[in-house]
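Ligand: adenosine monophosphate. Inputs:
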Amino acid sequence: MDINTSADIEKGAAYLREGRLVAFPTETVYGLGADALNPMAVAKIFELKERPSFDPLIVHIAELSELEKLTVEPDERVLALAERFWPGPLTMVLNKSRIIPDIVTSGLPTVGIRMPDNEIALSLIMTAGCPVAAPSANKFGRTSPTTAAHVRKYFPDIDFIIDGGKTRVGIESTVIGITEYGFRLLRHGVVTREEIETIVPYDNTSKSDVLVIAPGMLKSHYSPAKHMIVSPPGKISESERPKAGLLSFSGQDTENYGRVMLLTQSMDLREYAVNLFEAMHTLEESEVEFIVAEPVPETGIGIAIMDRLRKASWTKKS
Ligand code: AMP
Ligand code: MG
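Predicted complex:
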């Protein structure tokens, strides 16, 4: 880590301890962080993001020992998942301990926790000495930021942004709930159901008591400022194409589009995920009138990608 980054981390940590907000990179997207144990600081996140108070925040930790302080007796399945996937893009929703303020969890008895796989994030949390509540650093419902410039676009007056370059994974963490019978998927991400199933069974009972309708299941989310549709690009009429920006997966049927963003050179879903939000930001800032997203195969992380595309393009039917 270079000297500038170390100085930024010291400054960011001091801000967090003072109850101020700091945007920082994780491996997934940029987070808007506050001391998770300081309710006044956490309230500023909701205010700045214009995030509804019913949508709970994920708490980020840098050491496994924090898990014991923040949750009620994590069992061996939780520890096995942490061992396998942390640091990494898996959030576990667990019964919270008393020290977590209600505002963090929107009054729920559970808290979402993860250990990010990013040197700056881990070092910031360690230096601050507190768990860090951090949702994505964007206005509520809009496209998540994968660069510091995206964060600045949403929050030009923010106290402080640590710039760690473009994020490595590009879409948000997988969120799971742990039940008596196994795990439930609350949000798709790059850690897939199949990978998690190698450690803990999937709970397909209907009797589980975990909160199944998680706030992340909102129909509309991640939306760019322009109208977006999910469609095979060949189906859009030739006359409409010049007005549209295309998010291309296959590189096919790109003729006549106003702008083409090829998100992967070799139909690689991981590469596509890394580039998706950045391309959405580029298109919303460009001259195109609307965005066409080519569907991707719904296997592996393609499930998480299609979830983002559908929500970003969801419009209310009147
Ligand atoms: P964000 O921080 O913007 O990536 O969103 C965090 C998401 O994590 C929420 O929208 C929920 O879907 C999920 N989440 C966090 N905490 C909980 C919880 N206690 N119960 C259920 N879902 C949660
Ligand atoms: Mg978010």
